[in-house]
Amino acid sequence: MIASNDHARSYYRATANAMQQRLSLGADLSADVCVIGGGFTGVNTAIELAQRGLSVILLEARRIGWGASGRNGGQLIRGIGHDVSGFAKYVGEEGVRYLERAGIESVELVGQRIRDHQIDCDLRWGFCELANTAAQFAAFNAEQEHLAALGYAHQTRLVGPQDIQQVVGSTVYAGGLVDMGSGHLHPLNLVLGEAQVAESLGVLIYENTEVLELIHGDRVQVRCAGGTVRADTLVLACNAHLEELEPRLSGKVLPAGSYIIATEPLSTELANQLIPQNLALCDQKVGLDYYRLSADRRLLFGGACHYSGRDPADIAAYMQPKMLKVFPQLANAAIEFQWGGKIGITANRFPQVGRLKQYPNVFYAQGYSGHGLNVTHWCAKLLAEGIHAGHSTGLDIFSQVPHMTFPGGKALRSPLLALGMLWYRLKELA
């Protein structure tokens, strides 16, 4: 039986590169910056800080990539999240343009990191947004025009219902928008590779090192069972797993369950029938489906975001019918992997990035709401700018968007949101 601190029994874990075991913290240490959290946010913040000449210690309660960074759908898709134009009242029109550009440049940042350090993570370019209704497909035309107006450098093309089989072997969609500037990859191998990059820059990484207490002051003291780290600056990069380490932030993010199944390896013929161009795909439903092929031709099918706080007893039994609605051709395909994890959801579906008002030497980033693969990397860059230079225009823009605390306290916030999302799903069916 795998210990709870080890990685989930996922396809990613089974195909991970060089999953080294790191030591736990065993002494009192000091650094310019202490980062808590060994996912994309924490590891990339450490890289950005080390590149700027700061000493960094990173503490991870379990293993590098243990949370959503090592379990997600692996879809590297442009955008900060949902439509950012609604935040103009907080950030102004120029701020909205910045956020739109950041949604594009963040994908390019990930691609650049992979190229610069030759990280082996099965990166493939190409993504298709799928319309469930004719109205959704009609809206893709405006989206494509808006991308062109932004100067989007990558090919996009509309695929009507008559041609949708060119991108997905399913009859349930009303069209799609192909974007060759987005893509898919093996997320656990990406974060493991990035951790090696961080260490090559001098970052000290400690795994299985749970933080027990934060003692604030001009120098933050981060107390763990095996020692205490003292640092000028603290970065909280725990996202859905922050829990009560910092109550001012934990109530602003709801940990929601998301689930993935992986089939047995498919024949080349069947894989090409399902996804002829090896794109990442995602639909438009409230409880969306997202899927892609792995490097060894498995279908990785995910979705079913759960806000109740209760995971399905049998993920495969729960997810397989959803997959078969899209691909009945897979009725005889064995499900070889099933796993889930927690993503951090915010009330406005916009990431929370900034510093604590009460403790200005404490920075944080969280709440990517399912768009974390690229946005984590961008937020890491902003945090490093703010810490190193004392100012970051991008950090200021993100910080101007207000974030509510979920009502109901720790016990009730998940059930209340689950009821709210049920209403949206019922409305979708009406």
Describe the structure.
The protein contains eleven helices and 17 strands. Helix 2 (about 40-50) packs parallel to helix 5 (about 185-200) and helix 2 packs parallel to helix 9. The chain has helices at about 10-15, 40-50, 90-115, 135-150, 185-200, 245-250, 270-275, 315-325, 370-390, 395-400, 410-430, and strands at about 30-35, 55-60, 75, 125-130, 155-160, 175-185, 205, 210-215, 220-225, 225-235, 255-265, 280, 290-295, 300-305, 335-345, 350-355, 360-365. Mean pLDDT is about 90; it is low at about 420-430. The strands form two sheets. Strands 3, 4, 5, 6, 11, 12, 13, 14 and 15 form a nine-stranded mixed sheet that branches. The longest helix has 30 residues, at about 90-115. The protein has about 425 residues and is α/β, with parallel strands linked by helices. Helix content is about 35%, strand content about 25%. It has a domain at about 10-70 and about 190-250 and about 350-410: FAD/NAD(P)-binding domain (3-Layer(bba) Sandwich).
